């Protein structure tokens, strides 16, 4: 089911989101000072391609620099990206078929709001109970 949802997501909005985040990452990497945000954009672009089966978790040991960087990101890009994901999520949730895609947009809110100090991991690694529910052999 995750594969089917990821393929539909890719066609409906994932490709465009990933391209947007990748372009933003390239721009951030060209401006040498903003390389940490560029790397975060590339990480988000990968998540935007295949969000089903993955989760965003806080990285242990992220220091003060991540917090300061997140505040800068929040002011210049985070608020606008989050509003876009919220609007798209609400739009998708207006239809019954679009609800999983709306939820995927809502899952992207934390990483688009404050990307530094977060990791994108497989859902079974983020939530051990998820792995037990699906069976340990999968």
Automatic annotation (TrEMBL):
The reply to whether Cell inner membrane figures as a keyword in the UniProt entry is no
Give the residue spans that cross the bilayer.
Answer: 30-50, 62-80, 86-106
Keyword Transmembrane applies: yes
The residues covered by the Inner membrane component domain are 4-53, 68-118
- GO CC terms: plasma membrane
Q: Which residues form a coiled coil?
A: none
Q: Sorted alphabetically, which keywords does the UniProt record give?
A: Membrane, Transmembrane, Transmembrane helix
**Which InterPro entries has this protein been placed in?**
Inner_membrane_protein, UCP028777, YccF
- Please name the NCBIfam families in this protein's record: PRK11770.1-2 (NF008740)
Q: What is the name attached to this protein's record?
A: YccF domain-containing protein
């Amino acid at each position: 089911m995750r594969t089917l949802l990821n393929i539909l997501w890719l066609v409906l909005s994932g490709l465009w989101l990933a391209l947007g985040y990748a372009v933003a990452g390239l721009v951030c990497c060209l401006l040498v000072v903003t390389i940490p945000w560029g790397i975060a954009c590339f990480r988000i672009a990968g998540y935007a391609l295949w969000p089903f089966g993955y989760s965003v978790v806080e990285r242990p040991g992220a220091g003060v620099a991540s917090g300061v960087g997140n505040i800068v990101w929040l002011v210049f890009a985070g608020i606008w990206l989050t509003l876009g994901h919220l609007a798209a999520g609400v739009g998708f949730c207006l239809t019954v078929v679009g609800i999983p895609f709306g939820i995927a947009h809502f899952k992207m809110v934390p990483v688009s709001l404050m990307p530094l100090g977060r990791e994108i991991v497989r859902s079974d690694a983020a939530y051990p109970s998820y792995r037990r529910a699906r069976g340990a052999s999968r």
